[in-house]
Amino acid sequence: MTVSRISETKKADKPNNYFLILKGAKMDKYECICGYVYDPAKGDVDNGVNPGTAFADLPADWVCPLCGATQDNFKKLD
Ligand SMILES: [Zn+2]
Predict the structure, then answer these.
(1) Global pTM?
(2) If you measure from the C-alpha of residue 25 to the centroid of ligand 1, how many angstroms do you get, rounded to a whole number?
(3) Exposure check for the chain: N or C terminus, fewer CB within 10 A?
(4) Sign of the alpha-carbon dihedral angle for 15, 74, 47, 40
């Protein structure tokens, strides 16, 4: 007889971006109008954004650390 413990491991508390790091999903870089590039792999540690945070998952009040532009001034890099 096999007892599955999967339901227990699923409850493990991990930050949202943990899965993004593993999957490599949504890790696109975004460039500000001033030339600053937001790299999800690096985040913006000086402003409380952990490495692995996708651009889409940035706090709503996050702005460009260089020029203060809001997120809608950023363009996705290929
Ligand atoms: Zn900027």
Answers:
(1) 0.67
(2) 24
(3) N
(4) positive
